[in-house]
Amino acid sequence: TQAPETHEFQAEVKQVLDIVVHSLYTDKDIFVRELVSNASDALEKLRHTQLTEKDIFDDNLPLEINLTTDDKAGTITIQDFGIGMTRDELVENLGTIAHSGSKAFLTAIKENGGLNENLIGQFGVGFYSVFMVAKEVKVFTRTWKKDGEGFLWTSDGSGKYTIEPSEGQRRGTKIVITLLDEYKDFAQESRVKDILERYSSFIEFPVNLNGTKVNTTQAVWLKNKNDVSEDEYKEFYKFQAKAFDEPMDWMHFSADAPLAVNALIYIPGSNPELLGFGRTEPGVALHCRKILIDPEPPELLPDWLRFLKGVVDSADLPLNISRESMQDSSLVKRLGEVISKRFIKHLAEVSRKDAEKFEKIWRTFGVFLKEGVATDFTHREKLSELLRFESSETEPGKLTSLQAYVDRMKPEQKAIYFLAGPSRKAIESGPYLEAFKARSLEVIYCLEPIDDFVMQHLRQFKEKDIVSADQDELDLGDATKEAEGEELPKEQLDALCAWLKETLGENRVKEVSAGKRLVDSPALALNADKMMTSHMRRMMKAIAQ
Ligand code: ADP
Ligand code: MG
């Protein structure tokens, strides 16, 4: 036989290993969950491969996961008859950070200036978590491909691993973990059973522990709503989204027309994009009669719904639909359309029935809904009803909808006005608001950078124009309060304007004129460009620098 070949872990893997081993999880249990979830993924992939490939090694092996414990030897073994790995795949998958999870994790640590409470628990770092408890890990694996071979991957997690050929293997992967002395209790059957019951009861394939099946649950999303408990919903979320937190909310529905669909969609407990984890990948999986077609189909839902987790199952999909053909499948698009509509309707309902919950959702995920208003023409109108802002009529920190604004509009008021700025204080101490206050006109405060773009794209709400309050040529009507003091004679006024225009120069101002807008301030700069608010201009300038 050939001698084992020694490989170094990629530098990033070493970093992850270091964090995992030294500081990451107080909860060591999760390594079982990670490995069982990998085994389940490998079985899903095999089941999918079986739909399109004829030549599969060990084709008649059952699709199941087998765990065995040996408390004398202090070992635990996890075996699946899944897709297995070739030699190259071993190096790629278990020697580098090929998958997005751990990579995002590292980036976030760097951006946040180190590991903090927020980051811990947001992520499962997958396979590498086994080194929290292992003295040594052996991965025996054999690919489904007929012409493949078996390999053994070995490591103690300290910086190197070895790969060697290994004869006589069945298809799939078997991971043998020799536990560190202080974690030997993971080799006790009762301990592992307890963990499996908590984390792995939703696995679609039989999970056997020392020969006895431990999971018996049926697919939650296919069940009747009334038969699913709140706890079951929460547990399924953790399982499906590989999450460690609790969902904020969920929507479970089924329909027969226009398409047969069962969907269970979750709003997660937190927004990783706000925590600096980079762009979220779509997280609603697509199934056909329980069989996973794609865990994160990018074509199913519009981009701005990428924060959602869950499952969509449609019996109308062709089983052997490939990921490529999904891209132009009108069926998949229609499915996504149904889900998006339902979801928006669901949120509208939450906003009516549970204001507190809606506000929580808004504050965490509102930015995605805004993105939807700005980018998704199909859903813009319905989505705009969900928008919330502070305004000159709200207390600091409190929010209003556009509908509530419209309901408060004065009969003669022509438009919905907004001002963009970095903070409420900045807007209220600037000169722009003055004219509106003097006329008791409400102004929406746009405090997030995206708000400006949202307003520019929305343009109208319930047939009222949405107008930036810093535009020139706004006809605001008469002020209820007049400016005090004496008016300048016309010649002096003209001379002053001319002098200002000359002094400021053509590059700065297009025109200087006297107006009725202001009450207390002597002058303000207005925006002649209808397409761009002053705030946007400042942002563009900042970007250009
Ligand atoms: P993730 O599951 O998020 O991709 P992991 O660290 O858990 O990340 O696993 C890394 C990769 O190793 C997986 O994407 C998969 O390609 C491979 N892998 C892990 N366990 C198995 C297994 N039991 N069978 C086949 N491939 C596996
Ligand atoms: Mg994994």
TrEMBL record:
Keyword Nucleotide-binding: yes
Location, primary (coarse class): cytoplasm
One function term, GO molecular function aspect: ATP-dependent protein folding chaperone
Family, similarity comment: Belongs to the heat shock protein 90 family.
Region feature (A): 1-323
Subcellular location: Cytoplasm
Assembly mode: Homodimer.
Cross-referenced CDD domains: HATPase_Hsp90-like
The keyword Ligase belongs to this UniProt entry's keyword annotation: no
Protein name: Chaperone protein HtpG
